[in-house]
Each structure stands twice: as structure tokens, then as C-alpha cells.
């Protein structure tokens, strides 16, 4: 009896999925790239090197990101700032900065290690290339301009949604990152130019309330 009822249950599930797939109500895939899913807030996409609102570069060329990277795909060389015309507020700035995207595993450790929030990640993951050299992102491709715009090597590609470059990964939006609960819901990062004035992540109470409200 148990076997028959289990079989009928399984048959019911199969029928539901079959009908759902035909009608579209049970689809778990989307017709990418025509339709793109909203990404989770903590999605790890391609990196960006940020500036302060006054245009100074946040990177101080300390190489901590390169040291922590488990894939060994960041190469940084710092250079002394000219005291009369500094590039960054530190003693040095990131004179050479490269990330080999072919090796990157998008773990986000570089973001966590950075003492100045210079490197963060965006929501853009479309950056296929036709040769290896293009997959090594240089300082020119990573550094936002003074207005906060992030460069992309194929800005006219209709398949690329450049607005995803303006979207921060969850790390920079996080407001209780290492367990200090008093920071929950409080903005805890330094601003950048452009559209990057991200709201803090919602508190757990807000998340619970929203899910109760449906
Ligand atoms: S995301 Fe991870 S693998 Fe990629 S550059 Fe940063 S530390 Fe390296
Ligand atoms: S991105 Fe951050 S961790 Fe990496 S060299 Fe620049 S300041 Fe240091």
C-alpha cells in the first residue's frame, strides 16, 4: 500500500512539473539574456576601484588584496604620491593594478582585506572576451572616473546591462558585518562619487516584517 501511495505521489509531482513547465508556471530557468533575474544583494560580480567624493583614489597601494587573494590573480605596485599633487590620501597609490579574471574565483576576500574600501565588487558578470589579454583587467578598466562611472571594455554591447556596474555587492552595503549588532541598519562605509550612495542593508526586523506583510 505504501509503495503504491509513494508511486502515486511521485506521479503527481511529475505531472505537476510537466504541466508547469509547459505553461511556464514551474520554470526554474529564464530565457537569458532576454530576461535577467534580479541578483541577490551579496552577488559577487566584477570589481571596481573606487574614489572618494573629492576624486582622490581610495587605493593606497598597500597590496593587502594581492596578499590575501587565494587565486593569486591580483598584481599591485604602489608608488609614492607627489606631495604637491597626490593621487590618493595615503603615502602611496596603486600605480599598477591588475586582476586576472580568468583566475578569479569571486570569493570577495580582496574586498574584505582592503583597509580603505578601495576595491569592491559590482553586480556585473558579463565580461567574456575573445583573448586572454582582455581578461586581465588593468587599472584603467577597474578605476571609476571622477564622476563615479565605471569603465567597461564593451560599453556598446546590447547584452551588457551597464547599470549593474553601479550596483554594490552586499559587503559594502552590510551594516553589521563582523558581529557588532549596534551597526545594524547604520551606514558604515565611505562615500564614492556617482550613484553609489547605497542604502544600508535592512535590519533583521525589517526583513521579518516584510516577509510577514507578504
Ligand atoms: S574575489 Fe577572490 S579570487 Fe577574485 S581577486 Fe578577489 S580575492 Fe582574488
Ligand atoms: S585595493 Fe585596497 S588592499 Fe588593494 S592595494 Fe589598494 S588599498 Fe590596498
CATH domain fold name of the domain at 47-171? Alpha-Beta Plaits
CATH architecture of the domain at 47-171: 2-Layer Sandwich
Helix/strand/pairing category: alpha+beta
Helix count from the secondary structure assignment: 6
Kindly provide the radius of gyration, computed on alpha-carbon positions and rounded to a whole number of angstroms.
Answer: 22 Å
Biggest β-sheet strands, sense, barrel:
3 strands, antiparallel
- Coarse morphology: elongated
Structure commentary:
This protein has helices at 2-23, 64-68, 109-113, 139-142, 170-173, 204-213, and strands spanning 47-49, 74-80, 92-100, 119-121, 136-138. It is of the alpha+beta class and 214 residues long. The longest helix is centred in the first third of the chain and has 22 residues, at 2-23. The chain has six helices and five strands. The two termini are 40 Å apart. A three-stranded antiparallel β-sheet has the order 2-3-5. The protein binds iron/sulfur cluster (SF4) (2 copies).
Q: What is the strand and helix layout of this fold?
A:
Blueprint: H1 2-23, E1 47-49, H2 64-68, E2 74-80, E3 92-100, H3 109-113, E4 119-121, E5 136-138, H4 139-142, H5 170-173, H6 204-213
Antiparallel strand pairs: 1-4, 2-3, 3-5
The structure holds iron/sulfur cluster (2 copies).
Amino acid at each position: 500500500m505504501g509503495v503504491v501511495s509513494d508511486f502515486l505521489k511521485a506521479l503527481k509531482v511529475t505531472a505537476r512539473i510537466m504541466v508547469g513547465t509547459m505553461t511556464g508556471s514551474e520554470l526554474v530557468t529564464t530565457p537569458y539574456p532576454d530576461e535577467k533575474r534580479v541578483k541577490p544583494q551579496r552577488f559577487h560580480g566584477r570589481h571596481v576601484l573606487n574614489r572618494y567624493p573629492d576624486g582622490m583614489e581610495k587605493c593606497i597601494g598597500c597590496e593587502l588584496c594581492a596578499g590575501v587573494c587565494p587565486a593569486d590573480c591580483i598584481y599591485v605596485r604602489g608608488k609614492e604620491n607627489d606631495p604637491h599633487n597626490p593621487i590618493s590620501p595615503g603615502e602611496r597609490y596603486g600605480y599598477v593594478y591588475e586582476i586576472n579574471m580568468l583566475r578569479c574565483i569571486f570569493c570577495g576576500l580582496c574586498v574584505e582585506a582592503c583597509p580603505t574600501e578601495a576595491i569592491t565588487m559590482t553586480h556585473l558578470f558579463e565580461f567574456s572576451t575573445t583573448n586572454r589579454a582582455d581578461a586581465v583587467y588593468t587599472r584603467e578598466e577597474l578605476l571609476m572616473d571622477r564622476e563615479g562611472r565605471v569603465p567597461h571594455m564593451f560599453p556598446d554591447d546590447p547584452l551588457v546591462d551597464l547599470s549593474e556596474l553601479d550596483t554594490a555587492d552586499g559587503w559594502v552595503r552590510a551594516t553589521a558585518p563582523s558581529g557588532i549588532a549596534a551597526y545594524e541598519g547604520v551606514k558604515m562605509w565611505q562615500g564614492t562619487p556617482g550613484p553609489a550612495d547605497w542604502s544600508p542593508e535592512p535590519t533583521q526586523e525589517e526583513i521579518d516584517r516584510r516577509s510577514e506583510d507578504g
